[in-house]
Design brief:
The protein is α/β, with parallel strands linked by helices. The protein has helices spanning 2-26, 32-42, 55-71, 166-170, 187-196, 215-223, 247-256, 261-267, 336-356, 376-383, 420-432, 452-456, 478-488, 503-521, 536-546, and strands at residues 74-75, 82-94, 97-101, 104-108, 115-117, 124-134, 140-141, 146-147, 158-161, 201-206, 226-229, 241-246, 276-302, 307-317, 361-368, 392-397, 409-413, 435-437, 462-467.
Length: 550
């Protein structure tokens, strides 16, 4: 009898716990109806695809400012809700390329044999008789005991670099992170490291072992007109010339030098590999067209009640691809999922925090520009922070939200990387009763392709939260829905608002983010990276600066 009573009491307690959990969720003022309406508005033709430095931008940032004022958030940049971002659009026109060797000169055709661009804002750029050096993966990664530039001088030279990182090709989990690519796999890192090593130019090798993109696709990406941050307004040093070079061209260069590309590629997988000079030179002239423009990040804050000088960030990018007059029919990239969903989602989180009252730390809401051009707005912010980086606790990013179906799980980019794990599992696992999972395709490298990464790279552990792959309704094939969007909606004019979108699913994820942000905003912890992570040394430096003791 006593055992039965205990069992009944435990059952009652479990029911009350579940009711409390539901009530806690209902108390969070995040509305799927408001969310859907704001996504519908932001992805309407009126906003013209929300491209930076256009009338579409002016409409978008004005809309966000009005919403922040209505909710009562304070301006995040002094008395302004805006942070100006200086941009340049660079178009590089490359002539044919001359390769010099001990057997004479040979011409390579620009775009066909090599794709060339620059981030320089000069009228022209010249590369003259620059020695070509193969440097493997072009990585200097002390946490992995790896240095592709050791014992080789590339000052003033041109470097050829393999794509990805060693683990991607080898699949060896003991080499970097196996198929789960690292920061050192990113093209931006490879170019920046080449600058640090004193190189004048760098070309990443386009090899089918590393990418499924065709050469025509890659060449188009490299040589198109592209936005960059104005180098005169940021602490940046850029290569004179950068780009991509197809495997067939590389094989020819290696043969001219008496080397075999495949053999050297295999050798580059070995720790301690020394790069090799090809004994050939490259010369090319670029004419450069530059157009300057201004864009804006949008920022509002809720000042903290006890530690207002410490900041928890929520972020999303407001921009999309604008319009394309060359298209027949629909010419507007409305970007409903990417990223009107995240832009509107951030408004819901801000509303929930305003209704809940200020936590102990300040909360900043940051909508950034030019994500689609390479995370430019978020990177500009961390290079020109409004609030000290060493007092910035974390950033929670939202991008292309789950509008397919509610899920039992939540996947988190950044899970397993830092002490943010404690807050994630406590808020999502314990309070929402959801499984917290890793993103199932680490080889895609998307952990390094969102605006949170700009915060990561300056030392601040940051995350992305999104619906998982295990639907509440088991008749729904989540993976098929996601694959269909990737194939037919992502960066296409078909990414439009639909009444069929499930905003209850997105609302669940926004509540996850609200709970994580609330937990850490009421904490005194500055979460650090786990040992061996790329940016831990920067976080350690920040913590020493403020005298933080965990």
């Amino acid at each position: 009898m006593k055992e039965n009573m205990i069992s009944i009491l435990l059952s009652i307690l479990m029911i009350y716990a579940e009711i409390s959990l539901v009530n806690a969720q209902e108390d969070i003022d995040i509305s799927s109806i408001r969310l859907a309406e704001n996504v519908r508005i932001l992805s309407s033709d009126f906003f013209e695809g929300r491209a930076p430095s256009t009338s579409g931008e002016a409409k978008t940032i004005s809309f966000l400012k009005e919403k922040l004022q209505e909710m009562g958030l304070k301006p995040g940049n002094g008395d302004s809700y805006f942070q100006n971002v200086d941009l340049v659009k660079i178009t590089a026109h490359a002539g044919n390329v001359t390769i010099g060797s001990n057997i004479g000169l040979e011409t390579m055709v620009s775009k066909s044999d090599i794709a060339i661009t620059t981030k320089q804002t000069k009228d022209s750029v010249d590369l003259s008789n620059s020695e070509i050096v193969f440097v493997g993966y072009g990585a200097v990664a002390p946490e992995y005991g790896w240095n592709d530039y050791q014992d080789i001088d590339v000052k003033g030279k041109t470097v050829l670099i393999l794509d990805q990182d060693p683990g991607f090709l080898s699949g060896n989990v003991d080499q970097f992170q196996g198929k789960g690519v690292t920061y050192y796999a990113r093209a931006s890192y490879k170019y920046e490291e080449a600058v640090r090593q004193g190189a004048k130019a760098a070309f990443i090798i386009h090899d089918e072992d590393f990418t499924s993109a065709s050469w025509e696709q890659m060449e188009g990406i490299i040589t198109r007109s592209a936005l960059s941050l104005d180098p005169a307004k940021i602490p940046a040093v850029n290569l004179e010339i950068q780009g991509r070079i197809p495997k067939r061209t590389v094989e020819k260069l290696f043969r001219m030098a008496g080397h075999d590309y495949t053999s050297e590629k295999d050798n580059a997988l070995k720790k301690g590999y020394n790069g090799v000079s090809l004994g050939v030179t490259i010369s090319v002239h670029l004419d450069v067209d530059v157009k300057y423009s201004k864009s804006n990040n949008v920022i509002g804050i809720i000042p903290g009640s006890k530690r207002p000088d410490e900041f928890v960030f929520y972020m999303a990018h407001w921009d999309h691809l604008g319009t394309d007059a060359s298209l027949e029919g629909d010419q507007i990239y409305n970007g409903a999922r990417d990223n009107a969903s995240g832009t509107a989602g951030l408004l819901e989180i801000a509303n929930a925090h305003m209704k809940a009252g200020a936590p102990e730390r300040s909360i900043a809401f940051l909508w950034v520009t030019a994500e689609e051009s390479g995370l430019l707005g978020s990177y500009y912010y961390v290079l020109n922070p409004i609030y000290p980086l060493n007092k910035t606790v974390t950033a929670i990013n939202t991008d292309t939200m789950n509008i397919y179906a509610r899920t039992k799980d939540v996947w988190v980019l950044g899970l397993g990387d830092s002490e943010m794990d404690d807050f994630i599992r406590r808020s999502v696992g314990d309070k929402q009763g959801k499984r917290v999972t890793f993103f199932p395709h680490p080889e895609w490298g998307i952990e390094y392709r969102g605006d949170h990464f700009s915060f990561n790279r300056v030392g601040i552990p940051s995350i992305v939260v999104s619906g998982g792959y295990d639907p509440v309704d088991q008749n729904i094939d989540m993976e098929a829905l996601i694959d269909a969007y990737d194939a037919n909606g992502y960066h296409k004019v078909t990414d439009e608002f639909s009444e069929e979108m499930d905003f209850n699913a997105a609302t669940d994820d926004l509540k996850s983010m609200f709970l994580i942000g609330t937990d850490i905003a009421n904490s005194t912890v500055f979460p650090n990276w786990y040992a061996g992570k790329e940016f831990k040394y920067l976080r350690d430096k920040h913590m020493r600066e403020i005298g933080y003791q965990p």
